[in-house]
Design brief:
single chain, 372 residues, alpha/beta, Rossmann fold, Glutathione S-transferase Yfyf (Class Pi), Chain A, domain 2, 6-stranded antiparallel sheet, 11 helices
């Protein structure tokens, strides 16, 4: 999967930008605050329909403009798709080959991306919600079953929470309806648990290989932490565990007015596997950054296996705070795959020339992009 062309209109600091991209490595180089990250953000929106930086999309529209438009030409094997995301104050319009797509679930997966940004340190440092969001984004790209199930789960969850409040305030309300909602929620939760567990296991197959190649240490592992105890991830075991949890904690959930158990409260952690220590507390910032980079690199093969093609790799300011050796080791790993990478950086000092032989180098200055 490759992006061959990208066009931006009234997006952030780009009034009109057109670039043709290399199917291997593309490097956007320039000083800070010139618009390099905006390019990666536009590709993220083109793939996922939302930015990795903001939740309120009209912020991306140029001042005094009513809408912005992101267009991209994507090639997967011999199939070429023209993708468009139009953002205005009224909302978003999605198009594939000029045909409007009404459901996000029908649009997602036309372009698959894996993105690393400096803010990704929050994956380790911040709340479980940040880590769940990462799982949801990645799994939604590779599995329509996951995306549809997750959306259905959230709808049932919202209804169940509302009905818990009704039961709390009205003692004669029908509890049987809550039981029906609970059973429906469990059916969706089982699928989410199973797919998340499978994904983490797949990440663990390769994450340590890359972490060792970059750092020399083979001591990294990711651990999935569902918020209920699950001894086995077969259907019946999960169903019984959830059923027992909801029954046992009915009064607790009633008092809280919300569902406090289920995959919407999941977490996962990065740990040093030899001594079982959490990187959040025992890892340096450098170790945390390289752990996240290794996680993202480990995802590449998962996307290839599940989708039939490699994703586009977006690396924002990846070289900052890394020594020369680690910069080149990361580029060496990226170069192993037939994967398109789009990298932003302030400089290319001490990067081995052979890694850049086939690369397109673009200079970014005040919203203008020129290939060098």
């Amino acid at each position: 999967m490759k992006i061959t062309k990208l066009n931006l209109t009234n997006f952030r600091n780009y009034s009109n930008m057109n670039v043709s991209l290399n199917d291997k490595m593309n490097v956007f180089i320039g000083d800070n605050a010139q618009g390099k990250t905006n390019i990666l953000e536009s590709i993220t929106i083109l793939a996922l329909t939302k930015s990795h930086r903001v939740s309120y999309n009209p912020n991306i529209i140029q001042f005094n403009k009513k809408k912005c438009l992101i267009k991209g030409v994507v090639k997967k094997d011999k199939i070429i798709s023209k993708l468009e995301v139009e953002v205005s104050e009224e909302g978003k319009k999605l198009r594939v080959n000029k045909t409007e797509i009404r459901k996000i679930a029908d649009y997602i997966s036309h372009l698959n991306v894996i993105i690393f940004t400096p803010d990704d340190l929050e994956i380790i440092k911040s709340s479980p919600n940040v880590r769940r969001n990462l799982l949801n984004i990645q799994l939604s790209q590779i599995s329509k079953t996951y995306l549809n199930t997750y959306n259905e789960y959230n709808k049932i969850l919202k209804t169940r929470n509302e009905y818990l409040k009704i039961l709390f305030n009205n003692s004669i309300a029908d509890k049987n309806y809550l039981d029906i909602l609970t059973d429906k929620l469990i059916e969706k939760a089982i699928i989410i648990y199973q797919l998340r567990k499978e994904y983490i296991e797949s990440v663990n197959k390769n994450i340590n290989l890359y972490y060792k190649e970059i750092t020399g240490s083979d001591d990294l592992e990711v651990e999935y932490l569902p918020n209920i105890e699950i001894s086995d991830y077969d259907y019946e075991t999960i169903r019984k565990a959830l059923k027992h949890k909801y029954k046992k904690n009915y009064l607790k959930e009633l008092n809280y007015g919300m569902t406090i158990y289920g995959p919407h409260r999941d977490d996962f952690l990065f740990k040093f596997k030899n001594d079982n220590k959490d990187l959040r507390f025992y890892g340096s910032q450098g170790q945390q950054k390289l752990a996240i980079i290794s996680f993202k690199l480990a995802e590449i093969e998962i996307f290839k296996e599940k989708c039939g093609s490699y994703p586009v790799l977006l690396l924002d300011d990846i070289f900052s705070e890394l020594d020369i050796s680690k910069r080149n080791k990361i580029l060496k790993i990226v170069g192993k795959y037939n994967v398109q990478s789009i990298i932003t950086t302030t400089d290319l000092k001490n990067i081995k020339k052979n890694y850049l032989e086939d690369a397109f180098i673009f200079e970014v200055k005040a919203g203008n992009v020129e290939r060098k």
